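Troubleshooting: if your tokenizer reports a length mismatch, compare your output against this known-good record of 323 residues.
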Amino acid sequence: MNRMDSKTLKITTGAMIVAIFAILLLLNRQTAGFFEELFVYLLPIPMVAYSAKYGGKSGIPVFVAMALFSFLFGTLLTVFYAISGALLGLIFGTCIYHKVDSAKTLVIVMLLSAVFNVLSTVALAGVFGYDLTAEIREMQNQMSLISEKAGTAVPEMMLSLDFMKRMFIMSMVFFGMVQGFLIYEISLLILRRLRFPVQPPRSVFLYYPPKWSGTLTLFLFFVYDFTFLNPAMDENLRNVFQIVGICGYMYLVVFGMLALILAIRIWVTRNPLLIGLLGMLALFILPQALMLLGVMYISFSLHRQLLEALERKNRNGRKPQEN
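Known-good structure output:
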């Protein structure tokens, strides 16, 4: 295939990808958003496929076209989801094109999805005039009423407005990360079916994040805590600091959970059900301990030590079979 044919194929493929994206938006609009929750996971896939084949530089014009079509065929509600989904697909596909380590790609996709989910929530609240503080205050009142009717004593700290804000933002980050994981798995499944050259899966435990990221995200969490000690701070600035701080907090908690899972597999059990149960208990009972564990996992030698201990355990477990 000569150079002209290759360029024509690239343009044609880009036009087809934009058309698929526009059809998804139009279908969602014609069904009054009935499939919107499903399309959140599907919208990034066309951009993933194109940028995985041609690279991020070639994917930028396609992304711009998708952004324009999102205003033409989408609703005001879906514009944010469509543009963030296309951008996520562009970055995800570029990682595949450059053969970035699959575990690192998964972490990038999950973190970006969490950030986009929080930003979309804040942006939509601003556009439609929702007062998030008022909504959270209403949730606070409802929880107080439920506890009174049930006759149970709930700690006052758990009913405070600051605590409810923290839980709300954490839930947005958590569901964003779950969404990113599903987008990653669905996209790779479809790309493999289409016979794209996708790297084989690699254990996320083998991914070594930059050491400086642990220190940086811990600092961001301290900034987040500082916003609660300084009530005179500008409201918009406080919201930005809290969102960034919560993202840093969840980043540390994720790697702290990985460290905990490795430790459980080494010294307690390898039963997936028990590992999941212990991990969830730690997440709800000792989240701060998980955060500190994440700092040690990222910025110190805990990651390497756990992998070495797991390898020694595996070797010791194979010796009787070899004899």
